[in-house]
Design brief:
two-stranded parallel sheet, alpha/beta, globular, 40% helix, 7-stranded mixed sheet, 335 residues, single chain
Length: 335
């Protein structure tokens, strides 16, 4: 295989975009481990004047990820995120107006490998979110596991990320006067294992917790489909029933997060590496589904709303797929 190297005369802006995405990928893959290692080193070498105050503060701050987090507009406004967004680039598209006097749940699909669209649109100040949805604050809900990692949890919260626990989602949706949006990547870690280019498999049939919490709060559900999310990386072939998929699923059940074996392009060449491809992402926000408040919803009510949500998600996909290069015969597969 002939290696295709990047030309030397690439504009500075594109080089900065590559650097921005590289630091994001490395942060996603390694920063939590580095933060844990720092704490261990401080303990081993008895830098008690550093780790004792932090661990004491951590004890009292432990529940913050379930209480709205601790976002930082300064971090969200770092110039690195503008270059990150422009690398792909990432676009946010609104199809219906939302009422800022209400709270909403955005169901984000698909997970992809690293959820780049959700991060770029809802965790930085360089998307069009504030112009398209004035008066709203978005919270991206992620696995509680990441908030158990010292230091890393604090960095993660600066982006506006919070835990995906029931308590955390309820806290966001309980804001009086509205204006909050819970962004939940409904397919979760399991769906990332099916994030192959050209595939549209969504793990949603058994995901009904978001429907129940929408009913108990009377919160409208909004389907969101991020076209291009699955095109950013390739994965080692792992069909259902293969030994690799079996190992991945067992590890996912043990650890709570998946380990997709992905690859794409490199930093200085285009054949192999962990850098995502420069593929555009179009995150389309669909029509809100009104949800009457039902404090104690029955299984039948949950199932009915769940079916309605899947129908609206399919309609959203079908209405926009041709705009983003998806052929007529392609359709969503719900699992």
């Amino acid at each position: 295989m002939k290696v295709e190297f990047a030309p030397l005369n690439i504009p500075l802006a594109r080089r900065l975009q590559t650097a921005a995405v590289l630091q994001w990928v490395l942060s996603f893959l390694l920063l939590a481990q580095v933060c844990i290692a720092v704490i261990v080193i401080l303990i081993v070498y008895n830098y008690w004047f550093l780790y004792v105050p932090y661990m004491t503060w951590l004890y009292f701050d432990w529940n913050t990820p379930e209480q709205g987090g601790r976002r930082s507009n300064w971090v969200r406004s770092w110039t690195v995120w503008r270059y990150f967004k422009d690398y792909f680039p990432i676009h946010l598209i609104k199809t219906f107006d939302l009422d800022p006097s209400h709270n909403y749940i955005f169901g984000f699909h698909p997970h992809g490998v690293l959820v780049a669209g959700a991060f770029g649109n809802f965790c930085t100040n360089y998307s069009d979110f504030e112009e398209l949805f004035p008066g709203f604050t978005a919270y991206l809900h992620v696995l509680p596991f990441w908030f158990r990692c010292p230091l890393f949890r604090d960095y993660l919260m600066t982006s506006g990320s919070v835990s995906v626990s029931k308590k955390s989602v309820s806290h966001v949706l309980s804001k009086e006067g509205g204006g909050n949006i819970s962004v939940i990547v409904l397919g979760g870690a399991e769906e990332s294992l099916d994030a192959h280019p050209g595939k549209f498999t969504l793990f949603i049939r058994q995901r009904k917790g978001f429907v129940k919490i929408a009913l108990t709060h009377g919160t409208s559900l909004v389907p969101v489909f991020s076209f291009g999310e699955n095109e950013l990386f390739k994965q080692v072939n792992n069909p259902e029933g293969s030994w690799l998929r079996t190992v991945q699923e067992k590890l996912q059940k043990i650890m709570g997060f998946a380990l997709p074996l992905f690859h794409a392009r490199g930093i200085f060449q285009y054949n192999f590496g962990l850098m995502p491809y420069r593929k555009p992402i179009h995150t389309v926000v669909g029509r809100p589904i009104p949800v009457p408040q039902t404090l104690h919803p029955s299984p039948e009510q949950i199932e009915e709303l769940h079916q309605t949500y899947m129908e609206e998600l399919r309609k959203l996909f079908e209405a926009h797929k041709r705009k983003y290069g998806i052929s007529e015969h392609e359709t969503l597969i719900f699992r």
